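REQUEST ID: PR-0412
SUBMITTED BY: lab tech R.K.
PRIORITY: routine
TASK: structure prediction, single protein chain
INPUT:
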Amino acid sequence: MTADTDIPVEVCSQLDARLLAAEEGLSADANASPVLRAVVGEFRRKFRKTRAAVEGEPGAAQREGVIELEQAADSTKWAALADPGASDATKLAIVAAHDTICWFKATGALLDRRHIEPEPLAT
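STATUS: complete
OUTPUT:
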């Protein structure tokens, strides 16, 4: 595996962990809406579908997989932020998963702690 393919594998590992944290948060969040649960489920399905392409060699398939994941991440983030019943912890976990794939799409790099928005729920 080359350095170019190591980063996508790390990104997918980070995304998987953050998506799992979001799913666990939802499991414990009795006030989160069924819509939010469905959107997070769709994000997970898109991740399963696209992971091999995202972790693969740079090219059209990887780009398409990243774009598909970014779209699912965007929908999930906005559903979380719009859900008045979801806890802040659930929302933050979802935003963290979103930011992982969006940062990779924008920079080609792994999201580092120093780039995470300090208070993403601040209005």
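NOTES: Helices lie at 3-28, 34-55, 60-82, 88-107.
REVIEWED BY: pending
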